Automatic annotation (TrEMBL):
This is YMGG-like Gly-zipper domain-containing protein. Residues 1-19 form the signal peptide. The keyword Cell membrane does not apply. Residues 23-65 form the YMGG-like Gly-zipper domain. Keywords: Signal. Coiled coil: none annotated.
Length: 90
């Protein structure tokens, strides 16, 4: 039963990551992978899944942020919440 729940969690995180920034994608994929690994290590316990998910989300966000950064570019957000990248002002 726990394997089914873990599989569903990974599916949900994968679908949620389709319209995200690289940082958000990394966090979602890391959380899903970490939860699956934590469940396997803990022998199906919820504690391992939660701890693995939290660690995976943090690590995935860091990796995603490193991929997202572009030298010489600035990130802007307009009043509607849309994000875009442009050259930094001099």
């Amino acid at each position: 039963m726990n394997k089914v729940i873990a599989g569903l969690l990974i599916s949900v995180f994968s679908l949620a990551a389709t319209a995200c920034t690289p940082t958000q994608e990394g966090a979602a994929i890391g959380a899903g992978s970490g939860a699956l690994i934590g469940t396997a290590i803990d022998g199906g316990g919820l504690g391992g899944a939660l701890l693995g998910g939290a660690i995976g989300a943090g690590a995935g966000a860091l990796v995603g942020r490193a991929v997202e950064n572009q030298p010489g570019k600035c990130y802007y957000r307009d009043r509607y919440g849309r994000e875009y990248v442009d050259d930094c002002p001099r």
